Amino acid sequence: MILRRLVTCLVLLAAAAAPAAGAEKPATRHMISAANPYASKAGLEMLRAGGSAVDAAIAAQLVLTLVEPESSGIGGGAFLLLYDPAKKKVTSFDGRETAPASAKPDMFLDAQGKPRAHFDAIPGGLSVGVPGDVAMLELAHKKYGRLPWARLFQPAIRLAQNGFPVGRKLAATLRAFPQMAQMPDIKRYFYKKDGTPIGEGEILKNPELAATLRLIAKKGAKAFYSGAIAQAIINKVNHAPVNPAVMTLADIAKYRAVERAPVCGTYRVYRLCSMGPPSSGGVAVLQILGMLERFPQDQLQPNTLSEVHLFAEASRLAFADRAKYLADPDVVNVPVDGLISRDYLAERSKLIDPAKDMGVAAAGTPPTKHVLLDFAPQRTPQLPGTSHLSVVDDRGEVVSMTTTVEFVFGSEMMAKGFFLNNQLTDFSFESVRDGQPVANAPAPGKRPLSAMSPTIVFDADGKFKIAAGSPGGPMIIEYVANALVAMLDGNLDSQAASALPHVANPNGPTILEKGTLLEALTPQLTAMGHKVVTADLESGLHIIERIKGGYIGGADPRRDGVVLGD
Predict the structure, then answer these.
(1) What is the rounded CA–CA span in Å between residue 43 and residue 51?
(2) Which of the four, 62, 138, 294, 330, has the lowest number of CB atoms within 10 Å?
(3) Residues 6+ apart with CB under 8 A from 75
(4) Closest Cα partner for 566 from 61, 32, 22?
């Protein structure tokens, strides 16, 4: 039943999205691939002005707040992975939202002590975490920015003040979720007097967001985490039309973004780095690839029966570990090194039968220096949403950034022109299961588990090769891992990998993307023991790849994105 509800809520069919544009010819200086043309243009504007990859990512994110508000924005959070070529160093910036001091382990249980229906808990104040996006972007800019902070805000301010034509994806989202018009902010902002939502190509303005951005541009992140903006967030959460909650100015003022070491591993001759906890994405992607490495490349060619089967089996095992061990590392001892160790993954890989589906996988026991607490697997679904962008600048600095408000339009509430996230519903609704604690249970100040998987790949010589990532809730892990296998084993270029039909198995049925050639594999997979379902898997892969002579990029045709470069 949960899977069925997830499938029905995977919004925006491929037919509803504008055709994506990959780069027509290699760029030799810089490149950006983002989920909306205006965001890509804003990033390119910064790159042409001599800005860094971080500068371009910030400008693009601010524009996405306006033009793709259903997916990300300054009212949400993000993870930014960065490669510094001067130091040959990869680092990451954690802008994940935090739970307010009022958060309790039972906050998502009903009067009978049972988990609430997931969709009932999303709208309103209870689901809102303290936004981390602005603090994270400022932290990254202080270390890696080249242009003035205020300069990065100009494209978004212009568009918010003067208006922009609504894109196909935003218009399709509004049509797909008419029930959201029951929320006052959505009705006020997106709906016309005749009761219909704004349509594709119609002009949408947001002067309130323009004023907010001017204030942050002038005063920095402190203008977001104190004063009028912070008070507006508090007012909205505490007096929400549904599910009012308690958030204080102190909750917002104490938020801190964190620079963290990435998780890195190898796959064949390549080195991969991705986001570590509180995201599960990097660990899971490295696990999937690590378990596939023992199989020859000819068994991992895109869209083949062997590749789909083997990928689904490796995914089962990774998701079993994810459900049990992954959580906020500042609260829980997560055995990251053990989970991605080559010996452990080699043992887990032995559970994969090339001819037969294993059924539901159990979590393994990774080696660790710490005592492994006996956590119960969480089973609360996490919903699709989010956006991703990839950037490389003139100096070879690379950014892979995944950003989100969680579900469509987050909590469905706005403050000062931007949407507030519903990130707290990424916690497990059950804090205890079968008498055992759940690692990803709610707690004050805690960061909920994520699946965001911004990834950077290096070749055998240690040179940058690929920057990739995707939206899609837990399916992010699948989309990114499958694209990397397609590129590294199948020699697909970045645009072909972005458009590749999807297979997923989050330790349940094997999911094939509806309307693609993968559906033809259903009889063979069923004969191997798979329970097969089809779904409109909504990804948003945005990839940059270094080739001889420059860079090429890919933008997922399921979204409105484009690749731009010089």
Answers:
(1) 9
(2) 294
(3) 65, 131, 133, 233, 405, 410, 414, 415, 418, 419, 420, 421
(4) 32
Instruction: Check if the beta carbon of residue 49 is closer than 8 Å to that of residue 381.
Output: no
The two structure tokens encoding residue 369:
């220096």
Dihedral sign (CA 279, 422, 385, 225): negative
395 contact partners, CB below 8 Å, separation of at least 6: 52, 85, 86
Cβ proximity of 16 and 539 under 8 Å = no
Tell me how far apart the 2 most distant CA atoms of the chain are, in Å. 63
Give me the phi and psi of 258, to 5 degrees please: -130, 130
What pLDDT does residue 505 have? 97
Helices (H), 130-245: 133-144, 154-162, 168-176, 184-190, 207-219, 227-238
| Cis, peptide link before residue 278, omega less than 30° from 0 | yes
Q: What is the pLDDT of residues 152-167, one digit of tens each?
A: 999 999 999 999 999 9
What CA–CA distance (Å, rounded) separates 420 from 406?
10
Q: Give the Cα separation of 530 and 545 in Å (integer).
A: 34
Q: What are phi and psi of 353, to 5 degrees?
A: -95, 120
Determine the Cα–Cα distance for residues 288 and 312; give it in Å rounded to an integer: 9
Instruction: Using the Cα atoms of residue 339, residue 340, residue 343 and residue 344 in order, give the sign of their dihedral.
Output: positive
pLDDT of residue 435: 86
pLDDT at 25: 81
Dihedral angle, C-alpha 354, 357, 358, 362, nearest 10 °: 110
Dihedral, 10, 13, 16, 21 alpha carbons, nearest 10: 100
Place of tokens 């990114």: 480
Pairing verdict, β 542-547 and 550-555: antiparallel
Residue 556: CB atoms within 10 Å: 29
Could you list the active site residues?
386
Sign of CA dihedral 216, 222, 227, 231: positive
pLDDT along the chain (566 residues), means of 10: 35 35 77 98 98 98 98 98 97 98 96 92 97 98 98 98 97 94 97 96 98 98 98 98 98 98 98 98 98 98 98 98 95 95 98 98 88 59 78 98 97 98 95 89 97 98 98 96 98 98 97 97 98 94 97 97 98
For residue 382 the two structure tokens come to: 């996490």
What digits encode the pLDDT tens for the residues 345-373? 999 999 999 999 999 999 999 998 765 55
Please spell the DSSP secondary structure of 27-70, one letter per residue.
Answer: BSS-EEEESSHHHHHHHHHHHHTT--HHHHHHHHHHHHHHH-TT
Q: What is the distance between the alpha carbons of residues 71 and 76, in angstroms, rounded to a whole number?
A: 9
pLDDT (0 to 100) of residue 15: 29
Q: Is 173 helix (H, G, I), strand (E, B) or coil?
A: helix
| Spatial separation of the C-alpha atoms in residues 45 and 60, rounded to whole Å | 10
Contact 64, 70 (CB under 8 A): no
**How many other CB atoms are there within 10 angstroms of residue 201's CB atom?**
10
What are the tokens at 218? 């002038």
Find tokens 């040959």 and name the residue: 88
Domain ranges of the chain: 2-94+117-254+382-565
Report CA torsion sign: 496, 547, 484, 487: positive
